[in-house]
Write a structure and sequence with these properties.
It contains one helix and 17 strands. With 254 residues, the protein is mainly beta.
């Protein structure tokens, strides 16, 4: 086959394969992009309208001076996503298949917070999957390693009381939390104190009902930490900011 004929044949082959390649391409092109902007006092928008089963891609831009996080609450299956100051990160989300309201918490650990409502109506034209979360990057230090130390923590209204103020070692540490409150849901977040005073949420035990217990193992480097409950008004039926009510205490990893 001469060169012009070979080039023509290759061109036809590429054109024929293009639809197949597009069909096999990651499938993200059908997602609607929703932009969330984080500032140090609030996040916008406060409301997102969506169709049941719709596939979204959140582009989260942090315009503040502190690290922010977004995560699903009250049953919304959106993984925790850390967005450093000045950065933009993306996470996929599939809206539940029924009408209602899903909630996303956008916040600075131990600071300001916004509850974003995803108001669901109707149904997307071709929703495909009825599941919710599609994953993202949690940025946590959760590990399956065997713990080298165990810390038991008592949660009450509105106190956090670890059995001791410091771990014995750094590395994998298991935290076991018990909510002794008779009335309120609490959680345990392990916040690492960064050099600029901001917090990194290394992981958390979420939404412990009254009388419930939970545990988590985190691979933690030496440093200063804060054990906190970061439930905010509108989350888990709360009307107050648990951190602001005093539900935090210092902790150390040697």
């Amino acid at each position: 086959m001469n060169r012009p004929s070979l080039v023509f044949a290759l061109s036809l082959a590429v054109m024929a394969a293009a639809p197949l390649l597009a069909a096999c391409g990651g499938g993200d092109s059908d997602r609607r992009v929703v932009r969330i902007v984080q500032a140090d006092d609030a996040c916008t928008p406060a409301v997102i309208d969506a169709k049941a089963g719709e596939k979204l891609r959140f582009e989260v831009k942090n315009e503040g001076k502190k690290d922010h996080e977004v995560e699903g609450i009250d049953g919304t299956k959106l993984e925790e996503l850390l967005v450093p100051a000045g950065r933009t990160r993306k996470i996929n989300y599939t809206v539940p298949g029924e009408e209602g309201v899903s909630k996303i918490k956008c916040y600075i650990p131990g600071g300001s917070s916004t509850i974003i409502e995803v108001r669901i109506s109707g149904r997307a034209a071709s929703s495909g999957d009825d599941g919710e979360g599609d994953g993202g990057g949690a940025g946590t230090r959760i590990t399956d390693k065997a713990p080298l130390d165990t810390i038991r923590v008592r949660l009450s209204d509105y106190k956090i009381e670890p059995e001791r103020p410091a771990a014995n070692v750094s590395g994998p540490i298991k935290f076991m939390a018990e909510n002794v409150s008779p009335d309120h849901v609490h959680e345990l977040a392990v916040l690492r104190v960064l050099e600029d005073g901001a917090f990194e949420n290394t992981g958390e035990i979420e939404d412990l009902d009254p009388g419930a217990s939970g545990e988590i193992t985190l691979d933690l480097p030496p440093g200063k930490y804060v054990l906190a409950c970061v439930i905010v008004p509108g989350e888990a039926g709360s009307t107050v900011d648990h951190y602001a009510e005093g539900m935090h205490t210092e902790f150390a990893i040697p």
